[in-house]
Amino acid sequence: MKFRILFLIIISLSFFNCQNKKEVVKTENKKPNVLIVFPDQLRRYSAGFWSEAPYKDLAQGMGDPVVTPTMDKLAKNGIVFTNAVSNFPLCSPYRGMMLSGRYPEQNGIWNNCKVGRNESLRDDIETIPDLFFKAGYSTSYFGKCHWLKNDPLFDENGNYVGSTEEPGGHHVNAYDTYVPPGKSRHNIEYFYQALKDEHFNPRIYSNDPYAIEGKKDGELHLPKIFSAKNEAEKIIDYLKNERGQRDTDKPFCMIWSMNPPHNPWDDENTDMETLHEHYDTDKFPEIDEQLVVRKNADLEVANYARHYYANVTSADKYIGQVIDYLEKMGELDNTIVLFSSDHGEMMGSHSKTGKNTFETESLGIPFIAHWPKGIKSGIEDVLFSVPDVLPTVMGLAGLGDKIPSDIEGSNFSSLLISNNETVEKPDAVLLMLGNSRGVLTNRYTLCVKESKKPWDKHEVKTIDDAYFYDNLEDPYQKNKIKLEDNPDVSEKLLSHLAKLLEKTNDPWFKEKKYSDLIPYL
């Protein structure tokens, strides 16, 4: 009897040891998860680590005095890109390029999606969610979409009816609109969309009834919660998976597009608790050079600095909650976290607010790649464009052979995984606005600007301004250099521009616009 009991104990221990070995093998061979996070309108240097070595020596000017422990942790344990740029610093064009890996002429978005415009991400091209879904991932999206044409397909209460006839015929929002099930959702399995720039009153649509008080996909939900906090809670709930929201046998590919720190910057749309804790008059008595440190800033224009920084810090806090939960569940080491933004924020620099301009405060975006299991921490100076996100994240996830052949971005994954110095780095990247084209190199920013506003629809045939900045000698871009004042540099920059316009099938190239200036082949 004793021998039989001992035998059973040995067999049991052997079984559990085998199970444990299998579990270890399963974990070791598991595909990496993917989490792409991009707060809206977060400029590159609004992160605390830029005020510390070695990053501060690589910044173009000073970093903002912001409290961002999550960004700092991701940066110090990941790879910080010092030259990541939003090629078209505007919400919808960024999303079109990031999701598709293609430039505007190929993806369908040349301006912000808005009532009265036809801009819309093409349904017939594969995007990040499509491709990861095909590769066996559970796909999810949380937050702001802003990639679909805005048609009046809602009733007066904001519920989607899919028709312009009564009870339809209404818009739910002037800019972003609800993305219904179907091709426009691009194989996003779990969908939790937030609309409108009211941070404490987001308009929510979801295909998870539990997350929206039992409502159906397309019925408007108003949680009346700070949007970043609300989305973090829903993401953690999704990760817990207590209701079978995802297939735990699959890795996940999640995109989180957070609205803060996008405007409005007022008390009603700001995490005031965070403002009082970190940026109130006890710490910064005035809105002066201690708070607004960019040496090209108009302090009167930057009068919303406290509110902007407060929402940066608040966004950082809620991102931190998700990162902490990933660590708690043992998934952080095997999760590729890409942290970025759709564009920057001028905050008084050059006496401007917002984006939609070619200065660094608008163009420069954060980009951090964090994946403890797959990449070492460090710094990368490659000129990194928005269309590069799709091929690079696919390369990191081991899906390089599944990148569509018509993708226009570059796969820089080997640069990150193995520090492969043979990878060809671009000499210049293309910059675009509704009224401008230009290039960014490691030293210069070129701008060729038409005689109209970025959002004007009418055609013009005249150049209003053509100049470049020397970002090395003039990091705050205080001095525009006319092309004729330095023809040698101008010639090189314009040559880069001509090649990139052709490469991206840009309308300027197709129409050979301003051929007396731009040396098209």
Features:
alpha/beta; 14 strands; 9-stranded mixed beta sheet; 13% strand; 13 helices; 521 residues
User: Please, how many helices?
Assistant: 13
Estimated radius of gyration:
24 Å
End-to-end distance, in Å? 91 Å
The backbone outline, from C-alpha atoms, is globular
Tell me the number of strands: 14
**Main sheet properties:** 9 strands, mixed
**What ranges have pLDDT less than 50 throughout 5 or more consecutive residues?**
1-27
What's the overall average pLDDT, rounded?
A: 94
Widest sheet: strand ordering: 5-4-3-6-1-7-8-2-9
What fraction strand? 5-15%
Order of helices and strands: HEHEHHHEEEHEHHEHEEHHEEEEEHH
Binned, the helix content reads: 25-40%
SS class? alpha/beta
Question: How would you portray this structure in words?
Answer:
This protein is an alpha/beta fold and 521 residues long. Helix content is 27%, strand content 13%. The chain has helices at residues 2-28, 69-76, 91-100, 104-107, 128-134, 227-240, 272-278, 305-328, 360-363, 389-396, 413-417, 487-503, 507-510, and strands at residues 33-37, 79-81, 138-143, 190-195, 203-206, 252-257, 335-340, 367-370, 378-380, 429-433, 436-440, 444-450, 463-470, 481-482. Strands 5-4-3-6-1-7-8-2-9 form a nine-stranded mixed sheet, with helices on both faces. The termini are far apart.
Question: Can you lay out the helices and strands and say which pair or pack?
Answer:
Blueprint lengths: L1 H27 L4 E5 L31 H8 L2 E3 L9 H10 L3 H4 L20 H7 L3 E6 L46 E6 L7 E4 L20 H14 L11 E6 L14 H7 L26 H24 L6 E6 L19 H4 L3 E4 L7 E3 L8 H8 L16 H5 L11 E5 L2 E5 L3 E7 L12 E8 L10 E2 L4 H17 L3 H4 L11
Parallel strand pairs: 1-6, 1-7, 2-9, 3-4, 3-6
Antiparallel strand pairs: 2-8, 4-5, 7-8, 10-11, 11-12, 12-13, 13-14
Helix pairs in contact: 6-8, 7-8
